[in-house]
Amino acid sequence: MPAMAQDHASETPATTEQTEALTPADAQAFLDRVQEAYAAYNLTASRIAWVNATYITEDTDALAAESQAEGTRMSVRYALEAAKYSQIEGLSDDQVRMLDMLRSAITLPAPTRDGAAAELSEVSTRMSSLYARGKGTRNGESISGSDIEPAMGTERDPAVLKEMWVSWHDNVGAPMREDFGRMIAISNEGAEELGFADVGTMWRSGYDMPPAEFAREVDRMWNEVKPLYIALHTYVRHKLSEKYGSSVQPETGPIRADLLGNMWAQEWGNIYDIVAPEGAGDLGYDIGDLLTAQDYDALKMVRAGENFYSSLGFEPLPETFWERSLFTKPADREVLCHASAWNLNDKDDVRIKMCIKVNADDFVTIHHELGHNYYQRAYQDQPLLYRGGANDGFHEAIGDFVALSITPEYLVQIGLLDEAQVPSADKDIGLLLRQAMDKVAFLPFGLLIDKWRWGVYSGDIRPGDYQASWDALRLQYQGIVPPVTRDETRFDPGAKYHIAGSVPYARYFLARLLQFQFYKAACDQAGWEGPLHRCSFFGNAEVGERLDAMLKMGMSQPWPDALEAFTGEREISGEAMMEYFAPLKAWLDEQNAAYEAGW
Ligand code: X8Z
Ligand code: ZN
Predict the structure, then answer these.
(1) What is the CA(367)–ligand 1 centre distance, in A?
(2) Residue 372 known to bind ligand
(3) Which residues take part in binding chloride (predicted)?
(4) Residues near 328 by Cβ (< 8 Å), separated by ≥ 6?
(5) At how many degrees (to 10) do helices 559-567 and 541-552 cross?
(6) 0.85 cut: is pTM over it?
């Protein structure tokens, strides 16, 4: 158990009377003490979490749960204390900002009563362990999570797709239902003790604006891009109906969730072959095939990712990154395959943890994860409380923004594609459609995950309605339905990693829009004049320098300041994304003229 976490356990928080006597210097002493305590806790806690995630056993689960409970007790104690120090008059902006963060930046708070933090972390660890060990079936054979994911992208038999979808959701989601409810109840109790209405409100208060305003903001953003999603949905539904027949996929109404090339129907790029327009659709290459043809393996794919960042002027990754990262699924033990990026010592001990497969999805995910690592390294000189993304959407957007530069011309530059294979301008619609299948399709999914959790946390969604409300939101926002009817003995939300692992999700929705804003800004900086989607800023040191300047800020300033530093804008908006896809939108509208839009 980390010593610092215990040090102040018996300390009584300042009373109102004491508060009057306290000065900004006392607040500073408190902030210094807290940051020291966190630094001491973090290294050990991250090592425990790393070993647990890369070697799951009952023992490492127990160690991780214990360490997590310790961290929760510590951060809740500091949050309560911070509330008192916030009342001091004459605090600097930084002091106010840091005290505020201490109060609200806990993902799962526990109440201070005895045993609550321990129970919360046991329940959470059990859920994520269940997810990590999860299996489905394919043709009656057991199949692991890391194999079933890509299989949903390549399988084309609707009966087998249904089997994989149902087995995964039944095996992984349903057994989590009770634990999930318990987790919600305990963490809500914790949030209330900290003065928040519920955990959802806490999550929404990390965006430099009141939580209610943030909820309105994401609705505004969604409305900006919604017409593009509806157009894509209408077109894809028609193509699926053509391929599978109307008994499998009707021409109208929602789309069957398991037909979209992804277990959660969150990104649809894997079924590009089904929706590719005749003529303009054949891009002449598939990134997965190119990687395979050139004998790429996991390591070589990561080296290619690093090479991109190096071309922008970022330092190469340290030797320890290559020694300590987990790149492929070990044969002899359980690991949590969902990709993540780590920085264990808050300095240069950066790592990724992935079960890499040689395919297009993982090539993009590698760039995504490395984006986290380069961000972490860039803000390492900030005070500990400022080591984070300008907001969590920024952290998720950096690597994806870089990956938008993986254009055909870029693939030629790194020797993956022959000059002669570069698709001509008449293939632009195909290129845009391939990209939209991943990027645009994701938008309603990115939004609804936390719409659902916010509802659960606020009590608008009751435990007896978990499944029905999930299905209702999937239908309302994504226009999809499960391949078989679900009832309340199921718990499909738990079959998605971020629900099982309690990772807030609005960040990915923000990132989807932000990455296009960053990309457009970078292409402007690079003086690019062609169609936006053909721009690659590979090798552009000026873009790299400006990016580094934003990354270095960490969370020291409100996020609109960070956004402005790189893009000149202060609002997150769908405008850049709409501009990128404008030619596709016009084309989709033509294609869809004869079909009924929506569901
Ligand atoms: O979870 C992730 C990353 C790790 S932060 C692999 N992503 C979301 C998901 O998989 O659901 C990236 C895109 C969305
Ligand atoms: Zn990420």
Answers:
(1) 12
(2) yes
(3) 207, 507
(4) 298, 354, 355, 356
(5) 170
(6) yes
